[in-house]
Design brief:
Elements: E1 14-16, E2 19-21, E3 25-27, H1 39-51, E4 56-63, E5 76-77, H2 81-95, E6 100-106, E7 122-123, E8 137-138, H3 141-160, E9 165-169, H4 175-180, H5 195-198, H6 200-213, E10 218-226, H7 235-245, E11 251-256, H8 278-281, E12 292-294, H9 301-310, E13 315-318, H10 320-324, H11 328-333, H12 348-355, E14 389-393, H13 397-408, E15 413-418, H14 441-450, E16 456-460, H15 466-472, E17 476-479, E18 483-485, E19 508-509, H16 511-515, E20 525-530, H17 535-546, E21 550-555, H18 563-566, H19 570-579, E22 583-585, E23 588-594, E24 597-602, E25 607-611, E26 614-618, E27 621-623, H20 626-633, E28 639-641, H21 651-663
Parallel strand pairs: 3-4, 3-13, 4-5, 4-6, 6-9, 7-8, 9-10, 10-11, 11-12, 12-13, 14-15, 14-17, 15-16, 17-28, 19-26, 20-21, 20-26, 21-22
Antiparallel strand pairs: 1-2, 18-27, 23-24, 24-25
Helix pairs in contact: 1-2, 3-6, 13-14, 13-21
This protein binds adenosine-5'-diphosphate and iron/sulfur cluster (SF4).
The site of iron/sulfur cluster has 13 residues, from helix 10 and helix 12.
Length: 692
């Protein structure tokens, strides 16, 4: 029962085949960068969600055959006994907290780069992957039969490893979805042509897996019911497939989009509101009476209850919301709604998990650190030096997070002081950039949590210099003064300032001058110069376009905002900027800025000049380290620094850094991160002997 009876419905058990979910909270499969390579991180990351109350917790995509080797990405694998043993750690850890464990068995088909195994990827037809541009092998009947058999073997291993839910995954245009797709499937045999033929391999796989493990495990089918314009099927055929396969499925896990258009499924908050997929996935009930799970970056219990009550889905699926807060179900049950650390929809978890190969989250610094650093999202031990008073200078994301951890660790007194009129640092103004309003949750959630801690005081409008820090008399001092955009155009391309770039001039501006200082570009034509390739350059361009300027975004990167490709925003963002009439010039650089125009050079060395009235410099940030250096140089002990003040970085990493210092404030040398547990093969004959 929930503390608030309106949400009792979310805590009802649900039967899926032979298994019972304890409630309606379902962690759909999501990537971590762990796979079977980091089994302990994998197990601990999933176990925390089970502890937080989720009814089921799943792996990421887990391939069944060696010709579905996802390298350079890290997926799970269920190829052999070794994989089975590694994934069994997960089921054991998840079961210990009363949740079911699900495994997303998959085959990549055309998308598999197979960098490790060097096998050609098998696909319905010899059509290059729209994601990896690899030309695959057209499957012979032999291949089809062998892959179905691999799937069955993987399902048996999954059952034996303790999994309760076994997927026959064809979502995101993976192999079975490729078979269903008229784009990928151009076959003329019994596996191509009509929907019935295109569905044949998927249905045969479902039937074979069901025969093998269906009395022991629930069979889940995950599919894109609408490719939303990408390669795949649209809603009419999607629903028809659900009807055709329904007798073989215990749980429908439904989404939209394809691998290249994954951005439509795991939509960033910049472009997609919570629950947007319901427009398509809300129709699946028309085709099945079986349990349905869907996703939509849902974080509020009201919306979750409304969806279940409406009958469209039975289970509330989540990947990102439970990365940001693994304890959502428990917090809802206990009525602790304000404590929910709501996902901001930035997709940094995807960038970190997929591309950088170890999951991390902007909101939740503990995501991915559960095993290797032993950080629990809700548990904080009392610091050995809790009798000390700490002064934190700078209430940006790093300072706020550090104060939160130190407050929770019971420090006698934590003073969080900021020169600005309100706390938040750059999170005061970044959410005012077009589309980034949800990022304000970084600030509001932290301030709400800090307000609950009697040992933390926040003071604003107080600029601290070295004398003020000394006079404050704190035992420990943390400098979190952040960084600011360079006003001279210094950058990582020329490693020098740009001649003529000087933000004290009216026609040269930095983001802070615009967002905090109210400085406005003169004239109508503005150039935004971006060397960072993330949200700031594009954000400035869109903001100024909204103010009526003619804007050109010039970047040294190979395309506009390439880092946004890692967060699934890139293609949509570039289309959006184009639709707004913003000019875009990539692989180009400005060599001189003047009043009325600038000279530049392309990557190939061709010179160009542009006429413009104003220039916004998004070239690089510079740490504000003066206060820290002054204190350290004066020999003051117990002074540390965190966040952008050390080096300008992603907000996720600044928060992580503040969290790290808070967790380790009582270590022998808090300035130096403690070593963490690394997962790597040992040289002993049987590296797992100790843990079996
Ligand atoms: P981070 O991302 O590392 O947390 P931010 O740039 O977001 O850094 O925040 C730094 C904060 O530090 C800003 O709010 C700024 O007002 C504050 N700050 C900088 N210098 C001082 C100072 N000398 N005294 C008090 N606050 C300061
Ligand atoms: Fe949400 Fe961003 Fe965290 Fe991902 S990284 S879970 S999108 S807050």
């Amino acid at each position: 029962m929930a503390a608030d009876p309106r949400f009792d419905i979310l805590f009802e058990p649900v039967q899926i085949g032979p298994k019972t979910l304890r409630n309606r909270f379902y962690q759909v499969p999501h990537c971590t960068g762990f796979g079977v390579e980091k089994p302990w991180s994998q197990a601990a990351h999933r176990a925390v969600k089970a502890e937080g109350g989720w009814g089921a917790v799943c792996t990421e995509y887990c391939t069944v055959s060696s010709d579905a080797d996802e390298t350079p990405y890290i997926s799970a694998r269920m190829w052999d006994d070794h994989d089975q043993r590694h994934l069994a750690f997960l089921t054991e850890a998840v079961h210990a907290h009363g949740a079911l464990a699900g495994i997303e068995l998959s085959h990549s088909g055309a998308h598999g780069e197979n960098c490790e195994t060097r096998q050609p990827p098998p696909a319905p037809s010899q059509i290059a992957s729209d994601f990896s541009n690899i030309t695959p092998k057209r499957m012979e009947k032999l291949d089809i039969d062998r892959i179905i058999s691999d799937w069955v073997q993987a399902a048996i291993r999954s059952r034996d490893a303790g999994f309760d839910i076994v997927y026959v995954y064809g979502g995101h245009s993976y192999l079975l979805g490729q078979m269903l797709s008229p784009f990928y499937n151009r076959r003329t045999d019994e596996y191509g042509g009509s929907l019935e033929n295109r569905a044949r391999m998927w249905i045969e796989t479902l039937a074979a897996v069901r025969d093998a493990v269906g009395s022991d495990c629930a069979i889940a089918c995950r599919m894109a019911v609408s490719a939303a314009g990408g390669p795949g099927v649209e809603l009419d055929e999607g629903l028809e497939f659900v009807r055709m396969a329904d007798h073989l499925v215990d749980l429908w896990d439904v989404h939209i989009g394809s691998i290249l258009e994954w951005s439509k499924d795991s939509g960033a908050s910049r472009f997609f509101a919570e629950g947007w997929q319901l427009e398509w996935t809300g129709h699946v009930r028309e085709a099945t009476a079986r349990p349905i799970v869907g996703v939509g970056r849902l974080t509020t219990p009201e919306r979750m209850a409304e969806i279940v009550e409406s009958g469209v889905w039975d289970l509330i699926g989540a990947a990102r919301p439970n990365i940001a807060d693994p304890f959502i179900p428990r917090k809802i049950r206990e009525g602790r709604f304000a404590d929910i650390r709501a996902c901001i929809g930035c997709n940094m978890c995807i960038s970190k998990g997929d591309v950088r190969r170890h999951i991390g989250c902007t909101q939740n610094a503990t995501a991915g650190e559960e095993h290797r650093r032993g950080w629990h999202p809700e548990r904080f031990d009392r610091a050995a030096n809790a009798d000390r008073e700490v002064l934190i200078v700078g209430a940006g994301p790093a300072g706020m997070e550090c104060a939160l951890v130190l407050g929770r660790r019971g420090m006698r007194r934590v003073r969080l002081v900021d020169a600005a009129g309100e706390p938040g640092g750059l999170t005061r103004w970044v959410p005012r950039l077009p589309g980034l309003a949800e990022w304000d949750r970084l600030r509001t959630w932290r301030l709400g949590q800090l307000a609950q801690l009697p040992n933390v005081e926040i003071e604003t409008g107080v600029r601290m210099d070295a004398a003020a820090v000394r006079a404050a008399g704190a035992d420990l001092v943390v400098i979190a003064t952040g960084a600011a955009w360079a006003g001279d155009g210094r950058n990582g391309i020329t490693r020098a300032a740009i001649p003529g770039a000087d933000a004290s001039l009216p026609h040269v501006l930095t983001p802070e001058q615009i967002m905090l200082g109210g400085k406005r570009p003169p004239g109508s034509r503005a150039i935004v110069l971006d060397c960072e390739g993330y949200f700031m350059g594009a954000g400035m361009a869109e903001l100024l376009r909204g103010h009526g300027h003619q804007v050109e975004l010039v970047t040294s990167c190979e395309k506009i905002a390439p880092l946004c490709d890692e967060t699934l925003e890139g293609p949509i963002l570039r289309r959006h900027l184009h639709d707004l009439g913003i000019g875009m010039r990539a692989e180009a650089w400005l060599t001189r800025i003047g009043g009325g125009g600038a000279d530049g050079e392309t990557e190939l060395g061709d010179a160009f000049s542009i006429e413009a009235d104003a220039f916004v410099l998004v070239t690089q940030r510079v740490s504000d380290e003066a206060l820290y250096l002054e204190l350290v140089d004066a020999g003051i002990a117990g002074v540390y620094r965190i966040g952008d003040c050390v080096a300008p970085r992603l907000i996720a990493d600044a928060i992580w850094d503040g969290h790290r210092l808070g967790r380790e404030i009582d270590s022998p040398d808090p300035a130096r991160p403690l070593p963490y547990l690394r997962e790597r093969p040992g040289l002993e004959a049987d590296p797992l002997a100790a843990v079996r």
